[in-house]
Design brief:
This protein has 50 residues and is an all-alpha fold. Helices cover 80% and strands 0% of the residues. The chain starts with a helix and ends with a helix.
Length: 50
């Protein structure tokens, strides 16, 4: 997993694709939110946001 992150940052640095970074951050945050909401008591409140 760490190798994938290193390769991704190397790609963004070499190809000057730094605009991908905010997109990746948002995707990771949404993924974390979904994992958090799966089995917790916070789930009903998170689902009302969307």
């Amino acid at each position: 997993m760490l190798g994938l992150v290193k390769e991704l940052f190397a790609y963004m640095g070499a190809r000057k694709k730094w605009w991908l970074l905010p997109i990746l951050v948002v995707v990771v945050l949404f993924g974390g939110l979904l994992i958090l909401a799966q089995g917790s008591a916070v789930a009903p409140f998170i689902y009302t946001i969307f």
